[in-house]
Design brief:
Structural class: mainly alpha
Oligomer: single chain
Mean pLDDT: 82
Number of domains: 1
Order of helices and strands: HHHHHHHHHHHH
Number of strands: 0
Helix content: over 70%
Strand content: under 5%
Number of helices: 12
Distance between the termini: 34 Å
Low-confidence stretches: 1-7, 282-287
Largest sheet: none
Length: 287
Amino acid sequence: MRRREGRTGPQLNWSRQDLEQRLLFNGGRYTRVNGLLSGLIGIVLAVAFYAVLATTPLAKTAIGQIFLERGPTQHAVVVLFFWSLAILVFKRTKLGLQRRALDVKVLPDEAGFVISPSTVDQVLKRIHELAADPRSFMLLNRVEVALSNLRNLGRVGDVEELLRAQASQDESQVETSYALIQGFVWAIPVLGFIGTVLGLSQAIGSFTAVLGTGEDVSAITGALGKVTAGLATAFDTTLVALVAALIVQLLMVMTKKSEEEFLDESMEYGIRNIVGRLRLESLGEEA
């Protein structure tokens, strides 16, 4: 096993395996996403989306008209939608990398091996052999913090409390990593309502102008086209925004559920492999 690690390097290497790092951007810690990178990707996807609509027969369809002829708020909704999708895709890939730590065996394969103040350095050394930067992996960082303080703790329960404190901190970091996309879920419907107000304003203004012309019925009928265009803008912008926000919200809930499951599995890993293998009875004598 050690020979294999020596030839191929550590089993986990965040700087090489993290997708954001591989794209030459500063990767967010754990499952946090680099906002600049995801934003650039979102803009590129939005431009590509509009390029496809504008250069294909879709431009003359109802779908093409909804996205191409309903004003700037529609464009902003599309950008935020693709930005949100980019964030969720990155979070999924980063979560997959974090999950690899669950397969790492931080304890030697020796039968009956237990963790004690005399063997903790051996375990810490093994962690650094398996991962190039353990602090970049939520589970390994949690284990390393607990074991690094082992000599200052007198009871197994103290180690468990420390693991739970780290778990609480990790949960807080996961929660704050959704702040940007939660803001988008709020902003997308608001943009839709703004488009609705603009569309209604356009329709009312056009209708007022039609009534004030005093022309014959045929001229008024032709001018009513501007009124219906304003109404179309009002309803279409709201429809697209609500659908986009619904899709992003559902995908975010599924992604967040996966992260919460990972947090539970990490806590179970710590209890089973660290707390369950601790032996601190001799700590008072060694001290």
